[in-house]
Amino acid sequence: MRLLAVNCRGLARASANRELRELIRAHNPECLVLSETMISENKMLSKLRIWGYPNSCYVPPVNISGGFCVAWSSSLRLEPVEMDKNAIHCLVHLQPSPNPWLLSAIYGPSRTSERPSFWKQIQSVSARVPGPWLIVGDLNSTLLDSERSGLGSLRSAQRASQPLRDMVTNVGLIDLGIIGGSFSWRNRRRGLALARARLDRALCDGEWRCLYPAATVTLLPATFSDHNPIILNLFSVVQSKPSFKFQAAWTRDNRSQLVVQKAWSSYSNINPGAQLIGRQNCTRKALCAWNRQQFGHYLRFGSLLDASAKASDSAMWKAIIGVKDLIQRGACRLIGDGTTTNIWMDPWVPKHPTFKPTPTCDPGPGRAWVSDFICHGSQ
Protein backbone atom coordinates (compact mmCIF):
# COMPACT_ATOMS: atom_id res chain seq x y z
CA MET A 1 0.00 0.00 0.00
CA ARG A 2 1.20 3.47 -0.90
CA LEU A 3 -0.31 6.61 0.63
CA LEU A 4 0.30 10.09 -0.78
CA ALA A 5 -0.27 13.04 1.58
CA VAL A 6 -0.26 16.58 0.16
CA ASN A 7 -1.13 20.04 1.44
CA CYS A 8 -2.36 21.32 -1.92
CA ARG A 9 -2.76 25.05 -1.18
CA GLY A 10 -5.73 25.08 -3.55
CA LEU A 11 -6.73 22.79 -6.41
CA ALA A 12 -8.58 25.44 -8.42
CA ARG A 13 -5.30 26.25 -10.19
CA ALA A 14 -4.60 24.42 -13.43
CA SER A 15 -0.92 24.07 -12.53
CA ALA A 16 -1.75 22.41 -9.19
CA ASN A 17 -4.09 19.95 -10.92
CA ARG A 18 -1.48 19.10 -13.51
CA GLU A 19 1.31 18.56 -10.99
CA LEU A 20 -0.86 16.49 -8.65
CA ARG A 21 -2.01 14.34 -11.56
CA GLU A 22 1.64 13.77 -12.51
CA LEU A 23 2.44 12.79 -8.92
CA ILE A 24 -0.38 10.27 -8.86
CA ARG A 25 0.65 8.83 -12.21
CA ALA A 26 4.30 8.56 -11.14
CA HIS A 27 3.73 6.91 -7.75
CA ASN A 28 0.33 5.20 -8.20
CA PRO A 29 -0.78 5.48 -4.54
CA GLU A 30 -3.78 3.47 -3.37
CA CYS A 31 -4.74 6.18 -0.87
CA LEU A 32 -4.69 10.00 -0.97
CA VAL A 33 -4.73 12.48 1.92
CA LEU A 34 -5.33 15.97 0.52
CA SER A 35 -5.59 19.09 2.68
CA GLU A 36 -6.35 22.72 1.77
CA THR A 37 -8.09 21.72 -1.45
CA MET A 38 -10.21 24.93 -1.42
CA ILE A 39 -12.77 23.60 -3.92
CA SER A 40 -16.38 22.44 -3.65
CA GLU A 41 -17.35 18.85 -2.94
CA ASN A 42 -18.73 18.28 -6.46
CA LYS A 43 -15.50 19.46 -8.09
CA MET A 44 -13.36 17.41 -5.72
CA LEU A 45 -15.32 14.21 -6.27
CA SER A 46 -15.21 14.73 -10.03
CA LYS A 47 -11.42 15.06 -9.97
CA LEU A 48 -11.04 11.98 -7.79
CA ARG A 49 -13.11 9.86 -10.16
CA ILE A 50 -10.98 11.00 -13.10
CA TRP A 51 -7.81 10.14 -11.16
CA GLY A 52 -9.10 6.66 -10.33
CA TYR A 53 -10.36 7.06 -6.74
CA PRO A 54 -14.08 6.19 -6.61
CA ASN A 55 -14.18 6.12 -2.79
CA SER A 56 -13.63 9.15 -0.58
CA CYS A 57 -14.46 11.14 2.55
CA TYR A 58 -14.51 14.90 1.98
CA VAL A 59 -14.92 17.83 4.35
CA PRO A 60 -15.68 20.88 2.14
CA PRO A 61 -13.93 24.21 2.75
CA VAL A 62 -15.54 26.99 4.74
CA ASN A 63 -15.83 29.86 2.26
CA ILE A 64 -12.46 29.49 0.51
CA SER A 65 -10.51 28.14 3.47
CA GLY A 66 -9.76 24.48 4.11
CA GLY A 67 -11.06 21.43 2.32
CA PHE A 68 -9.87 18.04 3.57
CA CYS A 69 -10.07 14.69 1.83
CA VAL A 70 -9.17 11.02 2.14
CA ALA A 71 -9.66 9.02 -1.06
CA TRP A 72 -8.84 5.42 -1.92
CA SER A 73 -8.88 3.15 -4.93
CA SER A 74 -11.15 0.15 -5.42
CA SER A 75 -8.25 -2.19 -4.53
CA LEU A 76 -8.23 -0.91 -0.93
CA ARG A 77 -10.87 -1.37 1.76
CA LEU A 78 -11.35 1.57 4.13
CA GLU A 79 -14.16 2.11 6.63
CA PRO A 80 -14.73 5.75 7.74
CA VAL A 81 -15.19 6.18 11.50
CA GLU A 82 -15.17 9.91 12.29
CA MET A 83 -14.31 13.10 10.45
CA ASP A 84 -14.20 16.85 10.88
CA LYS A 85 -12.31 19.76 9.29
CA ASN A 86 -9.00 18.71 10.87
CA ALA A 87 -9.11 14.91 11.08
CA ILE A 88 -10.55 11.95 9.18
CA HIS A 89 -10.37 8.57 10.93
CA CYS A 90 -10.76 5.33 8.98
CA LEU A 91 -10.35 1.63 9.66
CA VAL A 92 -8.03 -0.02 7.13
CA HIS A 93 -8.49 -3.68 6.26
CA LEU A 94 -5.09 -4.80 5.00
CA GLN A 95 -2.81 -7.79 5.37
CA PRO A 96 -0.89 -8.98 7.34
CA SER A 97 -3.12 -7.67 10.12
CA PRO A 98 -6.04 -10.05 10.84
CA ASN A 99 -8.00 -7.10 12.23
CA PRO A 100 -8.37 -3.56 10.84
CA TRP A 101 -6.07 -0.81 12.02
CA LEU A 102 -6.84 2.88 12.53
CA LEU A 103 -5.69 5.50 10.03
CA SER A 104 -5.92 9.09 11.27
CA ALA A 105 -5.43 11.59 8.45
CA ILE A 106 -4.56 14.94 10.01
CA TYR A 107 -4.69 18.57 8.93
CA GLY A 108 -3.47 20.26 12.12
CA PRO A 109 -5.09 23.52 13.26
CA SER A 110 -3.21 26.63 12.18
CA ARG A 111 -4.35 28.55 15.27
CA THR A 112 -2.21 27.85 18.31
CA SER A 113 -5.18 28.28 20.66
CA GLU A 114 -7.02 25.35 19.03
CA ARG A 115 -4.18 22.85 19.27
CA PRO A 116 -4.42 21.67 22.93
CA SER A 117 -8.06 20.58 22.61
CA PHE A 118 -7.46 19.12 19.15
CA TRP A 119 -4.59 16.83 20.17
CA LYS A 120 -6.45 15.74 23.31
CA GLN A 121 -9.34 14.77 21.05
CA ILE A 122 -6.98 12.81 18.78
CA GLN A 123 -5.57 10.98 21.80
CA SER A 124 -9.09 10.02 22.90
CA VAL A 125 -9.83 8.49 19.48
CA SER A 126 -7.06 5.94 19.94
CA ALA A 127 -8.58 4.93 23.27
CA ARG A 128 -12.04 4.44 21.72
CA VAL A 129 -10.74 2.49 18.70
CA PRO A 130 -8.22 -0.12 19.93
CA GLY A 131 -5.66 -1.70 17.64
CA PRO A 132 -2.68 -0.58 15.55
CA TRP A 133 -2.68 3.16 14.84
CA LEU A 134 -1.16 5.34 12.12
CA ILE A 135 -1.23 9.15 11.95
CA VAL A 136 -0.27 10.91 8.71
CA GLY A 137 -0.61 14.36 7.16
CA ASP A 138 0.17 18.02 7.78
CA LEU A 139 0.41 18.19 11.57
CA ASN A 140 1.22 21.93 11.61
CA SER A 141 3.61 21.30 14.52
CA THR A 142 7.11 19.95 15.04
CA LEU A 143 8.35 17.24 17.39
CA LEU A 144 11.87 18.62 17.86
CA ASP A 145 13.30 22.12 18.01
CA SER A 146 15.79 21.11 15.30
CA GLU A 147 12.89 20.58 12.86
CA ARG A 148 12.42 24.30 12.40
CA SER A 149 14.58 27.10 11.05
CA GLY A 150 13.94 30.84 10.97
CA LEU A 151 10.47 30.69 12.55
CA GLY A 152 10.51 33.49 15.11
CA SER A 153 11.51 32.83 18.70
CA LEU A 154 12.27 29.32 19.89
CA ARG A 155 10.06 29.69 22.96
CA SER A 156 6.94 30.59 20.94
CA ALA A 157 7.58 27.68 18.57
CA GLN A 158 7.92 25.28 21.51
CA ARG A 159 4.66 26.56 22.99
CA ALA A 160 2.83 26.09 19.67
CA SER A 161 4.08 22.50 19.24
CA GLN A 162 3.84 21.36 22.87
CA PRO A 163 0.30 19.87 22.59
CA LEU A 164 1.45 17.50 19.82
CA ARG A 165 4.61 16.60 21.73
CA ASP A 166 2.59 15.83 24.87
CA MET A 167 0.22 13.59 22.92
CA VAL A 168 3.10 11.68 21.31
CA THR A 169 4.70 11.14 24.72
CA ASN A 170 1.46 10.09 26.42
CA VAL A 171 0.55 7.52 23.76
CA GLY A 172 4.11 6.41 22.99
CA LEU A 173 4.04 7.07 19.26
CA ILE A 174 6.96 6.43 16.92
CA ASP A 175 8.11 8.82 14.21
CA LEU A 176 8.54 6.91 10.94
CA GLY A 177 11.27 9.33 9.88
CA ILE A 178 11.70 10.76 6.42
CA ILE A 179 13.87 10.14 3.36
CA GLY A 180 14.91 12.93 1.02
CA GLY A 181 15.20 16.03 3.20
CA SER A 182 14.90 17.60 6.64
CA PHE A 183 12.03 20.07 6.09
CA SER A 184 8.62 19.63 4.46
CA TRP A 185 7.52 23.28 4.42
CA ARG A 186 9.18 26.50 3.23
CA ASN A 187 7.88 30.05 3.07
CA ARG A 188 9.67 30.51 -0.30
CA ARG A 189 11.55 33.59 0.80
CA ARG A 190 15.26 34.21 0.53
CA GLY A 191 18.13 35.01 2.84
CA LEU A 192 17.32 35.83 6.46
CA ALA A 193 13.58 35.81 5.70
CA LEU A 194 13.64 32.10 4.78
CA ALA A 195 11.68 29.89 7.19
CA ARG A 196 11.50 26.09 7.09
CA ALA A 197 9.93 23.36 9.20
CA ARG A 198 9.05 19.69 9.16
CA LEU A 199 5.28 19.87 9.47
CA ASP A 200 4.30 16.83 7.37
CA ARG A 201 5.04 13.39 8.77
CA ALA A 202 3.76 9.95 9.78
CA LEU A 203 3.53 8.62 13.34
CA CYS A 204 2.52 5.16 14.54
CA ASP A 205 2.28 3.10 17.69
CA GLY A 206 4.45 0.09 18.42
CA GLU A 207 1.81 -2.42 17.34
CA TRP A 208 1.50 -0.84 13.88
CA ARG A 209 5.28 -0.68 13.49
CA CYS A 210 5.57 -4.39 14.22
CA LEU A 211 3.01 -5.08 11.48
CA TYR A 212 4.90 -3.02 8.89
CA PRO A 213 8.59 -2.90 9.87
CA ALA A 214 9.65 -1.97 6.31
CA ALA A 215 7.36 1.08 6.04
CA THR A 216 9.12 4.26 4.90
CA VAL A 217 8.18 7.90 4.33
CA THR A 218 9.74 9.75 1.39
CA LEU A 219 9.77 13.50 0.78
CA LEU A 220 8.86 14.48 -2.78
CA PRO A 221 9.68 17.77 -4.59
CA ALA A 222 7.41 20.74 -3.80
CA THR A 223 6.21 21.85 -7.25
CA PHE A 224 2.80 23.44 -6.69
CA SER A 225 2.64 24.16 -2.95
CA ASP A 226 4.83 25.47 -0.16
CA HIS A 227 4.58 21.97 1.34
CA ASN A 228 6.48 18.94 0.05
CA PRO A 229 4.24 15.94 -0.63
CA ILE A 230 5.13 12.84 1.35
CA ILE A 231 4.55 9.26 0.26
CA LEU A 232 4.24 6.41 2.72
CA ASN A 233 5.12 2.96 1.41
CA LEU A 234 4.13 0.16 3.76
CA PHE A 235 6.10 -2.53 1.98
CA SER A 236 9.28 -0.74 0.94
CA VAL A 237 12.05 -2.87 -0.47
CA VAL A 238 15.52 -1.67 0.41
CA GLN A 239 17.50 -1.59 -2.81
CA SER A 240 20.65 -3.61 -2.35
CA LYS A 241 23.92 -2.54 -3.86
CA PRO A 242 24.24 -4.15 -7.30
CA SER A 243 27.00 -6.71 -7.69
CA PHE A 244 29.94 -5.91 -9.95
CA LYS A 245 29.58 -7.01 -13.56
CA PHE A 246 32.18 -6.43 -16.24
CA GLN A 247 30.56 -4.58 -19.13
CA ALA A 248 31.49 -5.83 -22.59
CA ALA A 249 31.01 -2.29 -23.91
CA TRP A 250 34.07 -1.19 -21.91
CA THR A 251 36.33 -3.18 -24.23
CA ARG A 252 35.34 -0.91 -27.12
CA ASP A 253 37.02 1.99 -25.33
CA ASN A 254 40.82 1.67 -25.43
CA ARG A 255 41.12 3.65 -22.20
CA SER A 256 39.61 0.74 -20.25
CA GLN A 257 42.74 -1.34 -20.93
CA LEU A 258 44.91 1.35 -19.34
CA VAL A 259 42.61 1.46 -16.31
CA VAL A 260 42.88 -2.32 -15.85
CA GLN A 261 46.68 -2.37 -16.30
CA LYS A 262 47.26 0.46 -13.83
CA ALA A 263 44.92 -0.97 -11.18
CA TRP A 264 46.25 -4.52 -11.55
CA SER A 265 49.86 -3.48 -11.08
CA SER A 266 49.08 -1.16 -8.14
CA TYR A 267 48.70 -4.01 -5.64
CA SER A 268 51.26 -6.61 -4.59
CA ASN A 269 51.47 -9.23 -1.86
CA ILE A 270 53.93 -12.02 -1.12
CA ASN A 271 51.01 -14.43 -0.81
CA PRO A 272 49.88 -15.35 -4.36
CA GLY A 273 46.25 -15.93 -3.32
CA ALA A 274 46.02 -12.66 -1.42
CA GLN A 275 47.69 -10.86 -4.33
CA LEU A 276 45.11 -12.21 -6.79
CA ILE A 277 42.18 -11.15 -4.60
CA GLY A 278 43.73 -7.74 -3.92
CA ARG A 279 44.35 -7.05 -7.60
CA GLN A 280 40.80 -8.08 -8.47
CA ASN A 281 39.38 -5.69 -5.87
CA CYS A 282 41.58 -2.81 -7.05
CA THR A 283 40.60 -3.43 -10.66
CA ARG A 284 36.91 -3.62 -9.80
CA LYS A 285 37.01 -0.32 -7.90
CA ALA A 286 39.02 1.39 -10.63
CA LEU A 287 36.64 0.26 -13.38
CA CYS A 288 33.58 1.37 -11.39
CA ALA A 289 35.12 4.79 -10.75
CA TRP A 290 36.13 5.14 -14.41
CA ASN A 291 32.65 4.10 -15.55
CA ARG A 292 30.98 6.72 -13.33
CA GLN A 293 33.37 9.40 -14.55
CA GLN A 294 32.98 8.60 -18.24
CA PHE A 295 29.34 7.60 -18.52
CA GLY A 296 27.68 8.78 -15.31
CA HIS A 297 25.36 6.77 -13.09
CA TYR A 298 23.63 9.39 -10.98
CA LEU A 299 20.25 8.65 -12.57
CA ARG A 300 20.31 4.87 -12.82
CA PHE A 301 17.13 4.42 -10.79
CA GLY A 302 14.92 7.35 -11.87
CA SER A 303 14.78 10.87 -13.19
CA LEU A 304 16.56 14.02 -12.03
CA LEU A 305 13.45 15.14 -10.14
CA ASP A 306 13.52 11.93 -8.05
CA ALA A 307 17.26 12.05 -7.38
CA SER A 308 18.97 13.12 -4.16
CA ALA A 309 22.49 13.97 -3.07
CA LYS A 310 24.63 12.16 -0.51
CA ALA A 311 27.36 13.68 1.61
CA SER A 312 30.00 11.94 -0.53
CA ASP A 313 28.71 13.37 -3.84
CA SER A 314 30.48 16.17 -5.67
CA ALA A 315 29.75 19.85 -5.03
CA MET A 316 28.48 20.18 -8.61
CA TRP A 317 25.92 17.39 -8.16
CA LYS A 318 24.77 18.83 -4.82
CA ALA A 319 24.27 22.21 -6.52
CA ILE A 320 22.16 20.61 -9.26
CA ILE A 321 20.00 18.79 -6.71
CA GLY A 322 19.62 22.04 -4.76
CA VAL A 323 17.69 23.67 -7.62
CA LYS A 324 15.63 20.67 -8.82
CA ASP A 325 12.49 22.08 -7.15
CA LEU A 326 12.93 25.27 -9.18
CA ILE A 327 13.38 23.21 -12.35
CA GLN A 328 10.19 21.26 -11.76
CA ARG A 329 8.13 24.35 -10.89
CA GLY A 330 9.11 25.90 -14.22
CA ALA A 331 8.52 22.77 -16.29
CA CYS A 332 5.51 22.69 -18.59
CA ARG A 333 5.68 18.94 -19.10
CA LEU A 334 7.87 16.11 -17.85
CA ILE A 335 9.03 14.54 -21.11
CA GLY A 336 10.48 11.32 -19.67
CA ASP A 337 11.12 8.82 -22.45
CA GLY A 338 9.00 10.90 -24.84
CA THR A 339 6.28 8.30 -25.39
CA THR A 340 3.53 10.44 -23.82
CA THR A 341 4.34 13.85 -25.34
CA ASN A 342 2.98 14.71 -28.77
CA ILE A 343 5.00 17.41 -30.53
CA TRP A 344 2.00 18.85 -32.36
CA MET A 345 -0.78 18.44 -29.77
CA ASP A 346 0.75 19.13 -26.34
CA PRO A 347 1.43 22.73 -25.19
CA TRP A 348 5.02 23.95 -25.07
CA VAL A 349 4.54 27.13 -23.01
CA PRO A 350 2.95 26.75 -19.51
CA LYS A 351 0.95 30.01 -19.52
CA HIS A 352 -0.18 29.67 -23.13
CA PRO A 353 -1.80 26.22 -23.54
CA THR A 354 -2.95 27.07 -27.08
CA PHE A 355 0.59 27.80 -28.25
CA LYS A 356 1.54 24.75 -30.29
CA PRO A 357 3.79 24.27 -33.33
CA THR A 358 2.04 23.86 -36.66
CA PRO A 359 3.55 21.44 -39.20
CA THR A 360 4.02 22.85 -42.70
CA CYS A 361 3.12 19.45 -44.14
CA ASP A 362 1.67 16.15 -42.97
CA PRO A 363 4.19 14.78 -40.41
CA GLY A 364 3.23 11.23 -41.24
CA PRO A 365 3.66 8.18 -38.99
CA GLY A 366 6.71 8.07 -36.77
CA ARG A 367 7.02 11.86 -36.54
CA ALA A 368 4.51 12.85 -33.88
CA TRP A 369 5.94 11.82 -30.51
CA VAL A 370 9.13 13.04 -28.86
CA SER A 371 10.28 9.41 -28.60
CA ASP A 372 10.27 9.22 -32.42
CA PHE A 373 13.23 11.61 -32.48
CA ILE A 374 15.34 10.01 -29.72
CA CYS A 375 18.29 7.99 -31.00
CA HIS A 376 18.73 5.21 -28.45
CA GLY A 377 22.18 3.81 -27.81
CA SER A 378 24.07 6.90 -29.00
CA GLN A 379 26.40 8.93 -26.82
TrEMBL record:
Matches recorded under Pfam families: Exo_endo_phos
Keyword line: Endonuclease, Exonuclease, Hydrolase, Nuclease
An example molecular function term from Gene Ontology annotations: exonuclease activity
Keyword S-adenosyl-L-methionine: no
Occurrences of domain Endonuclease/exonuclease/phosphatase (ranges): 6-227
UniProt protein name: Endonuclease/exonuclease/phosphatase
Species: Trema orientale (Charcoal tree)
